[in-house]
Amino acid sequence: MKNLLPIFLAFLFLNLIACEPKKPAPEKDNLEGKAWWKEGVLYQIYPQSFKDTDGDGYGDFKGVIEKLDYLESLGITMVWMNPFFESPMVDNGYDVSDYRGINPRYGTMEDFQAMLDGMHARGIKFVLDVVVNHSSDQHDWFLQSRSSRDNPYRDYYHWWPAEKGTPPYRHSLFDPEGAWEYDSLTNAFYLHTFAEQQPDLNWENPKVRQEVYDIMKFWAEKGVDGFRMDAFQFASKDTTWPEFPEGHEKDFIKWYGMRPQLHEYLKEMYAEVIEPYGVFAVAEGAGSTFQDAHDLVDADRKELQMAYHFETVDLSRTPEGYDLADFKNVFSKWDSAFAEKGWISIFLSNHDNARMVNRFANPDPKFITPSTQLINTFLMSMRGTPFTYYGDEIGMTNIDMPTIEEYVDVEALGKYQAAKSSGQDMEEFMQILNYNSRENGRTPMQWDATLQAGFTTGTPWMRVNPNYTEINVSAQDQDPTSILNHFRKMTKVRKENPALVYGKYELVQKEHPDIYAFTRKGEGQNLMVILNFSKNSSSIKLDQLPTESNLIINNYSDVNVNDQDMSLNLKPYQALIFSFD
Ligand code: TEU
Where residue 11 falls among pLDDT bands split at 50, 70, 90? Predict the structure, then answer.
């Protein structure tokens, strides 16, 4: 035995050397570590409007499969697809009648699997939309629940027996008559935060929660990589149904969202699904305070990994647009709230909003290219995971729908009714709806200049924007200076410059009226982002200027600097990124 000791010691020594890390350990950042969902760029697909292959006028999975190479060419690394489950389509799929079934309009489970495999083969992760604050009123659970007061599914939803009188007022986001609906079958009211065909599930019931986790496991086992939790901040309710003060609905999230129980449910979900399956989850909505948002996403709480709030996207809701000072302020405020902990997404559009170009860039044909490039540069250079909505990579715009007859969206129709019955100026109402409605963001993808923009060979479910002959993928693909090719450059720049993901953000010259300038420092890099949000030229004085060798991105062919007075003169909507010492 004794003889073996030196050998053992030598072995131990060699082992210790071998264990010595070859490369220095990655610098520990202050954001609780690195993760694929932080480094990714997410692309949102509204399946109904992306690409139709069977001529029925609705997009389908095969259409997405046809465009997988296009998705890869964008440099995006995650796809979030809006709901494609069995649904009566009262709210375009946000009313699910079977969480494991696929709406035949989009294809079959085999098509879904082929699409998912095709994404994975290209290094793209898939994020599933989980709509479980409510189901469809045609879901079997609800059909059972409403059938009798003693049905075992009765407690899957919220019921108020009519013999107790009228239930305390609850506001509905889609139904001008409020969130309680009377059902004569059992002489009771049920709760629906959205449309009356979207009854709210009772999250206080552990059986409901288990059903949801089982659904999530079903999809995780199919290989989905993440979940987007729809309207999730409203899932938990105070089922003692207290009276709320009049007008409380103006502060909707505060009164209806983020109850303490929600965090318990999320912890349960994390332990049941998120952690064991190694998936990620992002919540729609982040409460009404920074504390709410942190409570959702701080890693040590083990609830969710990411959330998105509406404060930035809410900045521009009328044709008057927004103020750059507010824009800087809101983004900077959220960044500083998450400087040490937590993670959010960065976006300026989605299926619930009008087009980003009209709201945040400039749709004037003279400016649409540089201004959309500028906004895309911005989104790809902020801290947080950028979410790009389909069509924003080519600058798709709002569609002009001045009269209510053309509207099909349940939200638009509800708002119209509410405006009419409260005696609002309907001309003004229609102007704002035309600018702001979600229909604007749902028009078919503009692939090329052929009939129906190459979206379908049939009649599209929604009118194609007539500007498809100018704004389309095919035309922009050929043009190195297009919005599309700038977008591709930006996804590459983000990947190649980790400071854009993890670096510290600092606002530069906050008071500048036209220019949004900021630095991103970290990962051994110092980057300066300079964005001229004006349709006029503008200049800024800086300590360091862009040069041929430090310039990383420029949406024009030249840069105008004056070394004498250290000023940088920017063209309308010019966007630059350069590195500095
Ligand atoms: O939206 C939830 C939500 O909070 C809405 O108020 C949203 O902000 C509004 O529609 C904006 O116009 C989610 C989905 O994103 C939305 O498409 C669905 O209609 C809604 O849930 C109901 O499922």
Answer: low
